[in-house]
Design a protein that fits this description.
The complex is a heterodimer of chains A (594) and B (177). Chain A has four domains: 2-138, Copper amine oxidase-like, N-terminal domain (Copper Amine Oxidase, Chain A, domain 1, 2-Layer Sandwich); 141-241, Immunoglobulin-like (Sandwich), CATH 2.60.40.3500; 255-365, Sandwich (Immunoglobulin-like), CATH 2.60.40; 379-581, Zn-dependent exopeptidases (Aminopeptidase), CATH 3.40.630. Chain A is built from ten helices and 43 strands. Chain B is of the alpha+beta class. Chain B has a domain at 30-152. Chain B has helices at 3-27, 68-76, 112-115, 121-135, and strands at 40-47, 54-61, 95-101, 104-109, 143-148, 151-152. In chain B, helix 2 (68-76) packs across helix 4 (121-135). The two termini of chain B are 39 Å apart. Chains A and B meet through helix 1, strand 31, strand 39, strand 41 and helix 8 of A and helix 1, helix 4 and strand 6 of B.
C-alpha cells in the first residue's frame, strides 16, 4: 500500500510539473514576493528539491557550504540545519532527523528537499497548480495595527505586521471600497469599524476573514486607483490612494476658453504640447479619473474637443484637440487645475522646429519645484593610473528634450534618470583617462541619425545606450541588455555589462537579448549595447531610480562592465572604480568632448 | 509487494503517458484549422503580466473574420477575464485601416498607440510584435509595417526602427503555457 500511495503522490507532483511547470520554471514566492527564476524547484526521483544557494539570499538564510565534506549548514533565526550531500539524515538544532530524500549536488547547485526544509524552518507550503507557483510563507504573522494617514495630500493606508506578508488587493464598487487581504495572518487587534476622515477614505474595517486571512476594507467616496507595496522600513503592506479627478468643464472666454480639471490641490500635473496634429496634453499624476463626461465636444474656432482618460493606472491624461498652434497656460487653483487657451502669441511657439516624421513635443508650462531627486553630481577622484587612456567611449542617454521616454508612477521621467546615470558614468570613465563622447549631456532631443553618427562611421571603441524600461503593467521589473546578433564583440560587451549590473544592483535578471530591430544597435558599426537598468514604471524600481545613490551604483556597475569587457577583449582592465570625493569641488572630472 | 499494487502502478504510469501525449498535442496544434462547423481557429499574441514574453492565445472566429482586419480586431479585444495574459497595446488604441500589398501588411492605428504608450524597450517590443506576429500568421502576410494616425513612423517610442516592414519574431514568444 505504501508504494501505491507514494506512486500517487509522485503522479500528482509530476502532473503539476506537466500541466504548469513545463513551459517556464515554476515560480516560487516567499511571503508573497516572487523570487527570481533560479530558485525554481527541481524534481529528482519524485522528490521536490530546491536550489538552496539561490534560495538563501532570497529568503534570508545564512548558508555555509563545505564542498570537501559535502556539508550544508543552514541558519535562520533560531533554527540550525545540518545536512550532507547524499545522506538521508539531517540535524535540526542538533537533533537527528530522517530525510525522505537526500540533498544532492547537481550542475553545481546544492539541492535540498523542500518538505524537510519547510518543516524545519516552520514555513508553510502551498502549491498553486493554476499558475504553476509554489508559495512559501512564515506561519505566524500577526496584523498589529491598521492606520489611515495623509501623505502629500494622498490617503495612505498602513497595515503593520510582524513579518513580511503576502497580500492581495481589490477595488470593489457599491459602495466603492478597497479590500486588502493579508494571507497567512491573524488579527492582533480588535475587529470592527471606525469612521475615517482621510482624503477619499470614508471608513475603515478590519476583521479575521477565514482562519488565515486578515481582511482590511477602506470604504471610499470615489472609486480611485492605488499603489500597493511592501512597507519601506517595517514589515507590512501600504497603499497610497490616488487623487480623484472628479470633473472636467469648459468655459468660453473672450480670447479662447478655459478648461477646468477638478482635482485635489496636491495632485502634481504637467502640461505638454504635441504637433501634427496640434494638441495640448495635461497629465495629472497619482490620479484616477472619476469624471462622468470624458469627452467635451466643442468644434470651436480654436479647439475641437477635450478628451480625458486613464492613461496609466496612476496617470489621468487630458488631451485638447486644437485647430493649429495655441497658447496654453496652466495654473493651480483651490479646487483644481485651470488651463487657459488663447491664440498663439507671435512668434513664441510658432518657430518650433519640428523633426520630419517625428511628432514634436514642447513643454509649454511646467510646475517647477526644486528637485531633491537630482542633486548635482559628486566629484570623482582622478585615478593615479590612466587605465583608459586612448579609449573613446560613446555614451547615449536615451530620449531627452521633447521625448521624455517612459514615465514612472510618480511622474519621474526616463530621460532625466538615464542622463544622470550617464553623466555619473562619464565622470568615472574620464577619471581613468577615457575619452568620452556624450550623444547628449543635457535635456535635449537628439534624433537617431545624430546619436549614431560617430558610431556609424566606425569611430569609438564602445557605443553604450542607457535606458530605463517600462511596460503597461507594474509586474514587470528587472534589468536587461540588448545587442545585435551579428556582432560578436557586442555580445561580449552586453554579457559583461549585464553581469556587472546583476552583481551591483541585484534586480531581477531578465537576461541578455539579441535584437536586429533596435535603431542604435542596427546602425552602429562599433561594439554596441543598449542597457535597460530597471523598470521606471515599477513602483519599487522607480523609487530606486530616483535615489542618487542607486544611480551612482548603476554608473559603477556599467564602469565595471566596460572594464570586464576590455579585460576579456583586449586583456586590459580599467582598474578599480574611481572613488567619489565627498566634498565636491576642484577635483571634479569633466568631459573631454561635449 | 502485491500484484494489485503493481497493477495500480502500471495503470497510473499509463494514465500519465496518455496525459503527457494529450498535453503535447494540445501545445503543438496547427495555428489555423478549419473545423466542420465553419469556425476557424486563429492565434492572437498577448503578453505575460511581467512583460517577459508574448503568448499565442487561441481564438475561434468565423472564416470571414480571419482577415487582417478581423485579426487585429480580435487582438484589440485583449484577454478574456479568465485569462492571465495582458494586451500589450495602449488602452483605447483603435485600428484605422489595414491593407496587404505584396506580402506586406500596412496597419494604421489611432493616436493612442503613441500618446498612451508607457514607453520602454520592453513595452515597445511587445506592442509591435503582438501586432506583427498576429498578422503574420496569415499566409498572405510576410511582413508588417505599423503606421499611427496615417503617418509612417521612424520609431514608436524611441527604440525600435520602424522605417521598414518587420518580420514576425518568435524569440519573444513563450512556446508553451
Amino acid at each position: 500500500m505504501r508504494t501505491g500511495r507514494a506512486a500517487l503522490v509522485l503522479a500528482v507532483i509530476l502532473l503539476f510539473f506537466i500541466l504548469g511547470g513545463l513551459a517556464s520554471a515554476t515560480q516560487v514566492y516567499f511571503n508573497g514576493r516572487a523570487l527570481s527564476s533560479d530558485v525554481a524547484p527541481v524534481v529528482v526521483d519524485g522528490h521536490v528539491l530546491l536550489p538552496v544557494r539561490s534560495l538563501a539570499s532570497a529568503i534570508g538564510l545564512s548558508l555555509s557550504w563545505e564542498p570537501g565534506a559535502g556539508r550544508i549548514e543552514i541558519q535562520r533565526q533560531d533554527k540550525q540545519i545540518v545536512m550532507h550531500i547524499d545522506s538521508r539524515e539531517a540535524q535540526l538544532n542538533g537533533e537527528t532527523r530522517p530525510l525522505r530524500a537526500a540533498p544532492r549536488l547537481k550542475d553545481d547547485r546544492i539541492l535540498v528537499p523542500l518538505t524537510f526544509l519547510a518543516e524545519a524552518l516552520e514555513l508553510t507550503i502551498r502549491w498553486d497548480v493554476e499558475t504553476a507557483a509554489l508559495h512559501l510563507s512564515d506561519t505566524t504573522i500577526v496584523v498589529s495595527e491598521v492606520v489611515l494617514t495623509e501623505e502629500e495630500g494622498r490617503t495612505r493606508l498602513d497595515v503593520l505586521t510582524n513579518a513580511p506578508v503576502a497580500y492581495d488587493t481589490i477595488l470593489l464598487a457599491d459602495p466603492h471600497r478597497i479590500v486588502v487581504d493579508v494571507h497567512g495572518a491573524k488579527l492582533g487587534l480588535s475587529p470592527g469599524e471606525q469612521p475615517a476622515q482621510a482624503g477619499v477614505a470614508r471608513c475603515l474595517r478590519v476583521g479575521q476573514f477565514g482562519p488565515d486571512i486578515v481582511r482590511v476594507v477602506v470604504e471610499l467616496n470615489a472609486p480611485v486607483g492605488y499603489e500597493a507595496f511592501a512597507r519601506e522600513d517595517e514589515p507590512g503592506v501600504a497603499l497610497l490612494l490616488n487623487h480623484a479627478v472628479d470633473s472636467l468643464s469648459w468655459r468660453d472666454t473672450d480670447v479662447g476658453g478655459e478648461l477646468f480639471i477638478a482635482v485635489p490641490p496636491h495632485a502634481p500635473y504637467e502640461i505638454w504640447r504635441l504637433v501634427e496634429p496640434d494638441r495640448v496634453v495635461i497629465d495629472v499624476f497619482h490620479a484616477s479619473l472619476n469624471a462622468k463626461d470624458r469627452i467635451i465636444l466643442l468644434e470651436g474656432e480654436l479647439i475641437k474637443q477635450v478628451r480625458a482618460s486613464q492613461f496609466l493606472p496612476n496617470v489621468v491624461r487630458v488631451v485638447l484637440d486644437v485647430n493649429g498652434p495655441v497658447e496654453a497656460k496652466a495654473s493651480r487653483q483651490e479646487e483644481g487645475v485651470c488651463i487657459q487657451l488663447g491664440p498663439p502669441m507671435p512668434p513664441a511657439v510658432d518657430d518650433l522646429e519640428v523633426a520630419e516624421g517625428e511628432p514634436a513635443k514642447e513643454p509649454v508650462a511646467l510646475v517647477k519645484e526644486p528637485d531633491p531627486d537630482f542633486p548635482s553630481l559628486p566629484g570623482v577622484k582622478e585615478a593615479a593610473e590612466k587605465t583608459g587612456k586612448g579609449l573613446l567611449i560613446i555614451l547615449d542617454p536615451g530620449h531627452g528634450g521633447l521625448d521624455p521616454g517612459a514615465l514612472g508612477p510618480s511622474g519621474s521621467k526616463e530621460k532625466d534618470v538615464v542622463l544622470d546615470i550617464s553623466l555619473r558614468l562619464r565622470d568615472l570613465l574620464v577619471a581613468v583617462g577615457c575619452e568620452v563622447h556624450m550623444t547628449r549631456d543635457e535635456d535635449r532631443y537628439v534624433e537617431f541619425p545624430e546619436r549614431v553618427r560617430l558610431a556609424k562611421e566606425g569611430k569609438g571603441d564602445i557605443f553604450l545606450s542607457i535606458h530605463a524600461n517600462a511596460f503597461r503593467f507594474q509586474e514587470a521589473c528587472g534589468t536587461e541588455t540588448f545587442y545585435h546578433p551579428d556582432k560578436q564583440s557586442s555580445r561580449l560587451l552586453a554579457e559583461a555589462l549585464q553581469a556587472s549590473l546583476m552583481e551591483e544592483l541585484g534586480r531581477t535578471d531578465r537576461g541578455v537579448k539579441t535584437r536586429r530591430d533596435l535603431y542604435v544597435l542596427r546602425e552602429s558599426s562599433i561594439p554596441t549595447a543598449l542597457v535597460e537598468v530597471a523598470f521606471i514604471n515599477h513602483p519599487d524600481e522607480e523609487r530606486l531610480l530616483l535615489n542618487p545613490e542607486f544611480r551612482q551604483r548603476c554608473a559603477r556597475a556599467l564602469f565595471q562592465g566596460l572594464s570586464r569587457y576590455f579585460q576579456q577583449r583586449a586583456g586590459r582592465s580599467l582598474g578599480p572604480v574611481p572613488e567619489i570625493v565627498e566634498d565636491a569641488g576642484d577635483t571634479v572630472a569633466t568631459t573631454s568632448e561635449g | 509487494m502485491g500484484k494489485v499494487t503493481r497493477k495500480a502502478l502500471v495503470g497510473l504510469i499509463f494514465l500519465l503517458v496518455i496525459i503527457v501525449i494529450w498535453a503535447l498535442v494540445q501545445r503543438s496544434g496547427p495555428s489555423s484549422v478549419s473545423t466542420g462547423l465553419s469556425q476557424t481557429e486563429v492565434l492572437i499574441y498577448l503578453a505575460t503580466r511581467d512583460g517577459t514574453s508574448l503568448v499565442p492565445v487561441k481564438r475561434t472566429i468565423s472564416p470571414e473574420q480571419a482577415s487582417p482586419q478581423g485579426l487585429i480586431e480580435e487582438l484589440l479585444k485583449g484577454p478574456r477575464p479568465d485569462e492571465p495574459w495582458v494586451l500589450p497595446l495602449p488602452a483605447g488604441t483603435r485600428m484605422h485601416s489595414v491593407a496587404v500589398v505584396d506580402g506586406v501588411a500596412y496597419v494604421d492605428f489611432s493616436a493612442e498607440m503613441i500618446e498612451f504608450h508607457p514607453g520602454g524597450t520592453t513595452g515597445e517590443l511587445l506592442t509591435v510584435y503582438a501586432v506583427v506576429n498576429t498578422l503574420a500568421q496569415l499566409p498572405e502576410v510576410e511582413q508588417v509595417q505599423i503606421f499611427v494616425g496615417g503617418r509612417e513612423l521612424e520609431t514608436l517610442m524611441g527604440h525600435l526602427d520602424l522605417r521598414t516592414p518587420l518580420e514576425p519574431d518568435f524569440s519573444l514568444v513563450l512556446e508553451e503555457h
